Structures are given as C-alpha cells and as structure tokens.
Amino acid sequence: MSRFLLINGPNLNFLGRRDPSFYGSMTLADIEKQVTERASSLGHEIGCFQSNSEGTIVDFIQQNWQLNRGIIINPGALTHYGYSLRDALADASVPVIEVHISNIHAREGFRSHSVVAPIARGQISGLGWRGYLSALDLMASLDQEG
Known about the structure:
Number of strands: 5
Shape: globular
CATH class of the domain at 13-23 and 51-106 and 123-138: Alpha Beta
C-alpha cells in the first residue's frame, strides 16, 4: 500500500460556491471523499491538505514528502507565480501530477502559464472534479511501475 498527498491551493476551499460555471458544484470535502474512496479501492492511502498560503503549503510538503510516494496538486492561483511552491515540489523528489478543474488553457491568458508544469510528470486540466480521479489513477500506475 502506498500513500500519496492531495494538495489544494488558494480559494479551493470555496469549491461548491465558487463560480460553478468553471468549478462545478462539488465541495472540496466532496472531492477529497471521492479521491480517498478511489485510493482505498486501489489499495492506497491519501493525505489531503488545503491552504490559502503558499508558505504553509511549502511547509506541509517539506514536512510530509518522505512519507509519500507522490503528490497530486491543484495549486490554484499559485500555478502562475508560486516559485517557492514549485521548488518545494521539485525538492520532494517524488512524482507530481498537476490538476486543474477548469481548462486553464481556454481561459484568461495569464492562467495558461504554469510554473509547476515543468517539474510535473503531467498536467490534467478541464475534466472537472474527475481530473483528480484521473490523476490518482495515473499516480497509482506510476507507483506500480516503480
């Protein structure tokens, strides 16, 4: 059994009430429950974390990466300028999969640039909350490959 981290950045705690045309109606707790249940069915565990503060997320990664085999992250707005987050993810030396609920490439121009993408194994964008499940499936496959 492997353990993975599921990290969500700024404003994702407002899912369910935050512009449903882009983010849907599921809350973050709903999404975490779906991902946790899928992980369990695959024989894995998930540690969920959310913060609106980049430094708090960096601290969490630095304190927890060694106990985990990979990180699934929706950096939120930190996607575009979170260089200390990017460095913490790179320093963790575990696979990283970047997830976005909306299609960041079909929105405002600034949203399509990701400072996380160059260090991530992949990016899933525009699949709604199901993108998290796709990221988990990919992470489990990568873990199985060794």
